[in-house]
Amino acid sequence: MQPRLPVPLLTAALLFSASVPGQDPATRFAALHAGRGPVGAARQDDGSIHAEGPTWQARFDAASARIEAEAGDAHLQIAALELRYLGARRGANWLPAVSEGDRDLGGREVWKAHGDTIERYLLRDDGVEQTFEFASQPPGNGDLVLEIAVGGNVWAPPSEQAAHQPLEFRFGDQRAIRYGEAFAFDRRGARVDVATRYDGQGRIELVVPGDFVAGATYPLTIDPIVGALLQPGGASFNDGEPDVAHDVETDRYLVVWRRTFASNKGIRGALYRGDGTVVQSLISLATDVGLFAPAVAFTRSLTENAFLVVWQQGNGISGRLVDAATGAMPAAAFAISSPGAGETDRRPSVSGPDGAMMVAWDRTLSGGSEPREIVLRDLYWLVPGNPNAITYGNEQVLQGVTSGNVSRVRLARSNVREQTGFETWYVNRAVWQRFWTSPAPGDHDIETASFRMKSGPLAFAIEQAPSLVPGASNIGPDEILPDIGSMASVYDDPTDLGYLIAWEDEGDVLAQRYDRDDWVGATFPIRATSAFEGAPAVGAGACEFTVAYLQIVPPAEFDVDVYAARVLPDGTVPQDHSLVDNPGTEFQTQARASSRPIQTSSSDRRNVSLLAWMGQTGTAGTGLNDIRARFFEPVGTTSSFFGTACPGPLGELPAIGFAGGEPVPGNDDYAITLTNAPANSLAVLLIGGGLVSVPIPGAPGCSLYTDLPLIFVLGAITDGAGAAQVALPIPCSMPVDAPVAMQWGISTPGWNAFGWITSNDLDVNWID
Q1: Of 93, 148, 92, nearest to 119 (Cα)?
Q2: For residue 180, which of 43, 196, 639, 741 is within the disulfide window of CB 3.0 to 4.6 Å?
Q3: Cα(19)–Cα(71) distance, rounded to whole angstroms?
Q4: Bridge-partner residues for 533, per DSSP?
C-alpha cells in the first residue's frame, strides 16, 4: 500500500518512480543522479506549473499532467505518461472535469479544481501521487466510476473485465508503472476492494461499489497498490534463479540472476535505489558454460559498502564483489570452494554483513549422484580497501549423511557479532532439506543448525547440532524448500537474535521460530488453504518478517501468482495473503526476498523487502523466462488531514503535522508537530480511536475530531513562534485497519468561554 495520502477526501493514487530528464537528457540525468535535489514546483511564464524531484520531473497545465521517467539507463530512454481527468459518474449523474483554475501549494502540492472535485498531485521524493477528492457522497445511485485518459509513449493491454487487478504500463517491452488492486476505505476504517479496468485505447476506470459509497462515513479514500514493477533482466533473454540483497546504509538493492544463452550461461545483476530507480541496469559478473544458482548478501568488510555474489561454477563455488554505490566490480571473480577429485559443489548461500562473510553449499562426493554434505566456509577482507586481500577460513562440514541426501541450504542473511573475551565470533544459523530413503518411497524433512565462526585456528564451533525442525519432520508428508530470515534490534547482542524458518508442507506454508540457541513456541501456519501454496522466501525488515510464497488455484496448473504474508517476531501472522503479482495466466516461480542486514545504526526503520522471482513470458512451456521484482512493505499507512482549526487571540490558526518520516511500524522517530499556535502556551495532543466531528460548546468555530475515550493525551509548551512537537514512536505490533485521530488543543484562558482553541485533525490508518 502507498503511504502519505495527505488529503482528507476521496483519493485515487498513482505513483511514478524513476529518473526523469529535462531538455538535454544526458545532462539532466547526470545532474539528477549526482545531486538528487529537493522536490519543488514553480509556475512558468506560460501559466503551467513545472515540478521536479530527485528522480523525476512533471509539467501541469490546465487540462493535463505529463510525468517523465527514465525507462532504462543504457540509452537514456524516457517513458512519458500523460494524464487527463475526464470526470466521475454515478448512475446517470456525470460530474465533468471542467477546470476552474489551479495552483501549487508550498512547492509540494499541485491541484486543479473541477467543480466539486479536486484533482490533486502530491510531489514526493520518489515520484508524483495523483489523487481525486470528494468531500461528501457524490449524487446519484450505483457504483462510483472515475475516468482518466492516458497518453504518452507507454502502453498496456486492455482488461477483459473490471476487477481488483493491476494495470502494467510498459515502455517498449519494459514494465514501467503499475496501477491497480485498489482498496476504498472510509474515515472509520471500513474497507472494500475497488475494481480497475483499462480499455487498451487510453482510458482507465476505477469502480467503487455503490453500496459502499452509500454507506461510507465521509471522507472516503481510494488507495491503489501502486509503484514500479521492476524487470531487471528485460524481456528478451532466458533468465532464472534470482536472488536479492539490501544495503540498508546506502539504500541500495542488488538483484542477481542466471542468464542462459545458446551455448553458455551468465551471472547478471541490476542495482537499484530504494525508490526503484536504476543505478546500474546490467552488471555482468561472469560468463561461462557451467554457471548456476547465484546468491547475494551485503558486506561492509571493505572500506566501501559492497555485495558479495556467489554462484556455482563448474564443480565449485565462485564469487565476486559488487560496489553498492555504483555497481562496479572492484576485483576479479575468485574461487570459494575446494572440491576434491570427482566432487561437485552446488546451490550456494551467503550471509554478511560484518567481519566474516559466510558461504554454504551442498556437496556431492566422488562417485556419488546425490549431495551428502552441507559445507561452510568464511571469508575475510583483513586489509580495508583491498578487495583482492581475501583470507579464507577452513571448509567445515555442517552435516554429512551416508544415505539419502541433503540440499538447498540457506543461511540467515545476517551474521551477528559475539564478543567472547578478546575473541570476536560471528553467529548464524543454517537450514536445509533432508531426504530419507526409509520408509519407502522416501521422505523429505527440514533440518537446521546454529554455529559461530571467526578467523584463525579453531575458528568454527557448532552451537546447536543439526536437528530436525519441529513440525517439519513428519513421516509421509514432504516438507521441502526451506528459507530463513534473522532479526535483532541490537547488533552485538546474540541473546536478542530471532530467526524465522519457513517451508512448504504438502501445499501449505508453515513456519517455526528460533532464538540464538533453539526453537521457540509451536509450529504455525503462514498460509494453509485448499489452494496450493509453497516455495516460501523469508525477508526480514526492521522489526517484522515478510514471507513471500507462490499460489496455484487448481486446476490452473500454469497460473501461478506471488503473494506475501506479514509475520511478527512473536509468530503472529496479522496478514497472510497480500497480493504481489498476478499477471494473468503466467507461470511464476523461484521467489526470493531481501533481508535487512542487522546493523548498529537505527536509520531507515522500515520493513520493506524487495521481492524477486522468475516469470514466464508467453504461453507456459513456449515462452522466455524473465526476472521480475517489486518492493513490498507488509504495512502501509495513510495520513490525511481533516477539518479546520479555530482562531486564537491574534488570529492564529493552529495546524497539526508530523515529522520523522512516516508512521510505519517500528519507526521510533515519528513525531506530531504543532505550528501557528499562540506562543508560550500549554498544548495538549489528543489521540483517540474514534473519528468524529462535533462542535465544542463555548468555543466558536472549534470542533472536536477525536472521540472519547482517548488512547493518549500528551502535553507540550509552544515556543515563541507558536510551535511544539511530541515524540510518538510507532510500535512494531501496530495493527492494520486501526484508524487513529489526532488533534491539538491549545490553552487560551479568557479568549472564549471554553478557554481552549483547537487545530485541525490528522487521521492515520495502518493498512495491509
Answers
A1: 148
A2: 196
A3: 8
A4: 551
Which range among 226-230, 287-291, 431-435 has the greatest average pLDDT?
431-435
Average pLDDT for the chain: 85
More confident residue, 30 or 301: 301
**Predicted pLDDT at 472:** 96
The values of phi and psi at residue 281, to 5°, are: -80, -25
Helices then strands, counting H and E runs in the chain, come out as 2, 57
pTM, entire model: 0.83
Is the pLDDT at 13 greater than 50? The verdict is no
Q: What angle do CA 319, 322, 326 make, to 5 degrees?
A: 170
CB atoms within 10 A of CB 489: 15
**Side chain identity at 229, as an amino acid letter?**
L
Q: CB within 8 A of 263, min separation 6: which ones?
A: 289
> 10 Å Cβ neighbour count for 103?
12
Q: Which residues of 153-179 are buried (b: 16+ CB within 10 A; e: fewer)?
A: ebebeebeebebbbbbbbbeebbbbbb
Q: 350, 360, 759, 379: which is closest to 594 by C-alpha?
A: 350
Kindly compute the dihedral angle of the four CA atoms of residues 614, 615, 617, 619, in this order, to the nearest 10 degrees: 120
Q: Is the pLDDT of residue 711 over 50?
A: yes
Task: From residue 545, give the alpha-carbon distance in Å to each of 277, 498, 575, 638.
Answer: 24, 11, 11, 21
Chain centroid to CA 381: 31
Judge contact between 206 and 222, C-beta under 8 A: yes
Omega of the bond leading into 158 within 30 degrees of 0 (cis): no
- In this prediction, residues 28-39 reach a mean pLDDT of 40
Q: How far is it, in rounded angstroms, from Cα 482 to Cα 410?
A: 7
Q: Are 336 and 310 in contact (CB under 8 A)?
A: yes
Segment 392-412 shows an average pLDDT of 95
Q: Which of left, alpha, beta for 36 (phi over 0: left; psi -120 to 50: alpha)?
A: left
Q: Which three cell numbers stand for residue 617?
A: 513470458
Please give the average per-residue pLDDT across 81-96, as a whole number: 90
Count other Cβ atoms within 10 Å, centred on residue 398. Answer: 21
DSSP labels, 51-75: EEETTEEEEE-SS-EEEEEEEETTT
* pLDDT at residue 395 tops 50: yes
Do 175 and 139 form a contact (C-beta atoms < 8 A)?
A: no
Using alpha carbons only, how large is the chain's radius of gyration in Å?
A: 27
Q: What is the SS3 string spanning 291-332?
A: EEEEEEEEECCCCCCEEEEEEEECCEEEEEEEECCCCCCCCC
Q: Which residues pair with 15 in a beta bridge?
A: 129
Contact indicator for 670, 662 with CB cutoff of 8 Å: yes
Rounded Cα–Cα distance for residues 53 and 124 (Å): 7
CA 63 to chain centroid, in Å, comes to 34
d(CA 34, CA 23): 17
Asked whether the bond before 219 is cis by omega within 30 degrees of 0, the reply is yes
Phi-psi region of 312 (alpha: psi -120 to 50; beta: other; left: phi over 0): beta
Helix (H) / strand (E) containing 246: strand 238-247
